[in-house]
Amino acid sequence: MDQPVVQGVSFDVRPAEVFALVGPSGCGKTTTLRAIAGFERNCGGEVRLGDRVLQDATRFVGPEKRGIGLVFQDYALFPHLSALGNVMFGIRHLPRRHRRQAAVEALWMVGLMDFEKRMPHDLSGGQQQRVALARAVAAGPSVILLDEPFSNLDPDLRYATCNEIQQLAHRGGLALVLVTHDQQEALSTADRLAVMNEGRIIQTGKPQAVYDEPETAFVAHFLGHTNLINVKSNGRFGTCELGSLELNQPAQGRVCVSLRPEQISMQPAPSAGSIPVGTVTARQFKGHDITFRVRLAHREFVVQTEHEAAFGVGDQVCLVPRQAAMVVDRQE
Amino acid sequence: MWVPAVICGVGVLAPVVCLVADAAQAEPRQIWQTVWRWRNLELIWNTLALGVAVLGMTTFIAIPVAWLTTRSDLPFKRLFTVALILPLAVPGYLIAYTLLSISGQYGAAFVLTGVPLPRIDGFLGAMVALSLYQLPYLLLNLRATLLDLDCGLEEIAQSLGHRPWHAFFTVVLPQLRPALYAGWLLVALHVINDFGVVSLMGYPTLSFALYQKLEVLDGVGASWVALILLVAAGSLIGIEWWLLRRLRLYRVGTAVPAVAGVVALGIWRWPAMVFLLFLFVGSLFVPLATICYWATQADYGVLWLQLQTALMHSVGVGLPAAVAAVALAAPIAYLARRYSSKRSLFLERFAFVGYAVPPLAFALGLVVATLAFARPLYQTVFILVYAYSLHFLAEAVAPLRAALFRASPRVEEAARSLGHGQLSTLVRVTLPLLRPGLVAAVSLVLLSCIKELPLTLVLAPPDFETLSTQVWKNTEDIRYAEAAPFAILILVVASVSVFVLLRIERSP
After folding, report:
1. Is the CB of B433 less than 8 angstroms away from the CB of A80?
2. What are the DSSP calls for A215-244, one per residue?
3. Closest partner CB to A76 (pick from B408, B419, B421)
4. Across the interface, which of A38, A68, A72 has its CB nearest the CB of B410?
5. What are B's interface residues with A at a Cβ cutoff of 8 A?
6. Which member of A76, A90, A132 has the closest CB to residue B413?
7. Is B419–A90 a contact, with Cβ atoms under 8 angstroms apart?
8. Would you say the ipTM is above 0.85?
């Protein structure tokens, strides 16, 4: 246990913003979340909320005094309290006679009218999550942390939850930090995200920016699929198995580049010429697009095309980049 | 938080250490004479023989019964199961009482019909009573395993060409081994530690001899027999631990069990029914009928007062003991959840120590310790409360752990993040979640205290009669009618504890 689980993690979240911490399981996301909430006492570093220092070398504000809401992965509803009781439990800032009304309103907000008297074990997983969310919001925090909010939900509910989270932030002015290992949900829900691996943040930015311009091979690989290609570069161009490539930034010598499957186009192999030719080894029809695997010069490339593409397994094809390849840091 | 665990450890071990010190104090010649006696060898032999006989008998009954009630299409499975598990809560001395009070020349059978049933006592009586009493422990273990055994394996064995019988012996039986070992340990421990049955049956085992030596105030002799008992109990636990540790290495990850298929018995259902019916009549119907018969024969003039006093004594000592046991068990259960499995196992072993130490040896150790260090407490109810609470600690841990298991630590953290401090969280979240567990734990320990015999006999103040001592003493004096009302109260207590146990098991 000498090696810290999380190290050198630093980020800031603004009001009315959804911030996602995304990374493979065991990368330290949840530990980071628990540290913000105040459940990890012995860690160095600083946690601030506005001008208030919540935790540094000398100070430690207990979780109950931080005013930071938390929605656990297993929701952690109080099994002995009704849905309404759960939500009322956290409302301490209002005079007693207004609490009930506030809790009812919070349940309305998450679409659970008429569920006030239900006990947690009578609620479905999605409903439990809503109660947990209402409970966190009703306590009146300025920040809410969500641990894997999508992991126990079916696809329809995921979409609804994603919407709800965005509304809470953008309309309610709350800062939301969510932790997930699902890159798809992170990309579609967050205003900004940070990719974590092995206890460190690798890259932070807007989802589109991080997706389009990954700085390292890990980020490129973790957010969506990609082809990592070794290139002998000379300025803005390089050569590799596919032939000549344009690079997004000048580089010299051997570098690693990322070309996403949708950034490569597939063409029938010309009858003659010097362009490298590959063979289609697999075709995976996915509805609105098709994923091909192409064997070319002893390695496999993944290519994604629109659903009309008429290639089949065994066809000879050549691969042409649609845009400049991203130079990425090969090292983790 | 570690304090309660240490209290338990010291509380149980200190009397044992006093016992060892006391035993070692005697002169070497005297020790030599007390220990190397033909009589001692006989006692050990008797105990061993009884243990083996009870283990054999319970195993031969429990395996077919467990299989019949889980896997076959036998009618009234549920009824048979309940009927055969019910004796679990009935103390051994009560079963011995029914066997004795029905047979022999003073028995109910002779009084009613004039035909004397051969008196069931001695080795045979002890074996039958202990087997009936211990059967549920083995049965419950085996049933639990059979119910979530992967039946797929049995079917695979059959598909590979093994006959059903063969498949049972080669596939199912080996998988029952952990359940058998765990059950055998309990049964063997209970046989070694048993006092009620062997004393009434007049079959001299180690613990019976220990009591006799105490009666004649042979301190050194009693101490040495107690030491032999301790070694026997300790080695049993050691053997079981070793067997289970070896088994665990071979265990494969939990498979998703195939739904248990029901085996059609065909013509065999009739012998099976007769077998179970015989067991049912023997273990439930006859004892109940006997007790009821004797209860009608009792003269309630004097008994009425005795009943009230005994009940008051039993509850008066049992209740504080139960509260103390739960107060000690709660932190242990709480710590066991918080810490890693290895440390929590260690903690729970602590709670088990008081249960495993033979009660008579524990009682003798306490007598020695109070005489040496706390003379004013000698023969007071305080010592009895102390002994009860440590002896039944393990019974309090289980329901508390079950209740805590349902309350994940996340729930407490959720309360903290909603602005509630540690105290508020404890009062408003943790305790309400624990309440059913606390109630169950207190009632279980209280009921066990009421049924307890050997600790009560040795440690209670003079003339302090409880329900259990009244049953025992009246039976010993062949006053079966006078014992019956007390026995009925004990039976009521026993059925309530079964009810509580079932409630705990059913809660998710």
Report:
1. yes
2. SBHHHHHHSS--EEEEEEEEEEEEEETTEE
3. B408
4. A72
5. 406-408, 410-411, 413-421, 424, 428-429, 432-433
6. A76
7. yes
8. no
Tokens at B37, concatenated: 């006696």
Of A67, A72, A78, the CB nearest to B429: A78
Name the phi and psi angles at A42, rounded to 5: -90, 75
Tell me the nearest-neighbour CA distance from B318 into chain A, angstroms.
30
Residue of chain B minimizing CA distance to A68: B417
Using an 8 Å Cβ cutoff, are A32 and A11 in contact?
no
CA A92/CA A103 separation, integer angstroms: 11
* Token reading at B399: 């329901």
User: Are B408 and A70 an interchain contact pair (Cβ–Cβ within 8 Å)?
Assistant: no
DSSP string spanning B462-487? TT---HHHHHHHHHHTT-HHHHHHHH
Digits of tens for pLDDT over chain B (508 positions)? 567 677 777 777 788 888 888 877 777 777 777 777 778 888 889 999 999 999 999 999 998 888 888 877 788 888 888 777 777 778 888 888 888 888 877 777 777 787 777 888 889 989 998 998 888 888 888 887 787 666 666 666 666 666 666 777 777 777 788 788 888 888 898 898 889 899 988 899 988 888 888 888 777 788 888 888 888 888 888 887 777 666 654 444 444 444 556 677 777 888 888 888 888 887 778 888 888 888 888 888 888 888 888 888 998 899 999 999 998 888 887 777 666 566 666 666 767 777 888 888 888 888 888 888 888 888 888 989 999 998 888 888 878 877 777 677 788 888 988 888 888 888 888 888 888 888 888 888 888 888 889 999 988 888 888 989 988 988 888 888 888 888 888 888 878 877 777 676 665 4
* Residue contacts between A and B (CB atoms, under 8 Å): 66
To the nearest 10 degrees (0 to 180), the angle between helices B300-338 and B341-356 is 160
Task: Enumerate the residues of chain A whose CB falls inside 8 A of the CB of residue B424.
Answer: 64
